[in-house]
Specification:
The protein has one helix spanning 33-42, and strands at 13-19, 25-31, 46-49, 54-57, 66-73, 80-86. By secondary structure, the protein is mostly beta strands. The mean pLDDT is 97.
């Protein structure tokens, strides 16, 4: 049973995707109730694309799917943390393992 999460005004909740094996944060995407249900039913991450306005399975074209191992949610019930096994070379569409591959220099 899915808890009653606090979705935003568009019915979305942020989902942080983390590698269960080494703790790397791979990406952030958005889910709605339906994409969360799809994720639970299949065992692989599904999201709502805000730009394309459609559902997508991560890795459906690249083969770099994310096998879900654990889904946690925060104390405010407005953010998901999804721990996965990342199959393939990585999560980022740029070819990097993680979407968080750039940094801002600190003074």
């Amino acid at each position: 049973m899915i808890p009653e999460f606090k979705y935003d005004e568009k019915g979305l909740i942020p989902a942080i995707i983390q590698d269960i094996q080494n703790g790397d944060v791979l990406m952030l995407a958005y889910m709605n109730r339906k994409s969360l249900e799809m994720t639970l039913e299949t065992g692989y991450t599904h999201f709502w694309s805000r730009s394309r306005q459609k559902y997508w399975k991560k890795g459906e074209t690249s083969g770099h799917v994310q096998e879900v191992k654990e889904i946690l949610y925060d104390c405010d019930e407005d953010t998901l943390l999804i721990k996965v096994i990342q199959h393939g070379s990585g999560a980022c569409h740029t070819g990097h393992r993680t979407c968080f591959y750039r940094s801002i220099a600190l003074k």
